[in-house]
Design brief:
The structure is a single chain. Strands 1, 2, 3, 4, 5, 6 and 7 form a 7-stranded mixed sheet that branches. The chain has 3 helices and 7 strands, in the order ααββαβββββ. It is elongated and about 65 Å long. A hairpin with an 8-residue loop joins β4 and β5.
Length: about 160
């Protein structure tokens, strides 16, 4: 009986670690797909009814709208870089909550890398396990710093 309890405990702990790894990988894929301008793949990181909340924007709901709005807002940038740090995830069955910090930079002309826009701040994220694996349910960004003036406001003012 004790061996069975130990095995069940190890299975739960392993599942939690696998879930956290899958969620971290999802966030890295989210950044890589945006940086690669692959907007449909970027939107596929979200649940079908996923929600994006950026500072001054109304909620953007659903993969199609997320791909169109985010892709449209960032399409004039040749170079994009999403960097994440301090990823923390709490898994509770088929749902999870998480936070991480974003450091974002974008260049309009990659031959002039010294001319870029940047900002950063914390993401608050909820995740859901789907038949496709873990997906972002809600993604909320709060900018706490900016570098340069983002007069076009392509990404949330």
């Amino acid at each position: 009986m004790a061996d069975q309890t130990l095995i069940l405990d190890l299975q739960r702990r392993l599942q939690r670690l696998e879930d956290k790894d899958a969620i971290a990988s999802l966030m890295y894929r989210y950044g890589k797909m945006a940086d690669s301008h692959r907007w449909e793949d970027y939107a596929a990181c979200f649940a079908e009814d996923g929600v994006v909340r950026f500072d001054d924007w109304d909620d953007v709901v659903g993969r199609e709208k997320i791909a169109a709005l985010i892709g449209g807002g960032l399409s004039n940038f040749q170079g994009l870089q999403h960097s994440f740090s301090n990823i923390q995830v709490d898994v509770d069955g088929d749902k999870a909550t998480g936070t991480c910090y974003l450091w974002f930079a974008a260049t309009i002309d990659m031959t002039k890398p010294h001319e870029f826009q940047g900002f950063g701040g914390p993401y608050e994220i909820t995740f859901v396990r789907t038949a496709e694996g873990w997906k972002i349910s809600t993604l909320k960004l709060r900018k706490i710093w900016t570098q340069s003036t983002d007069s076009a406001k392509p990404i949330g003012g």
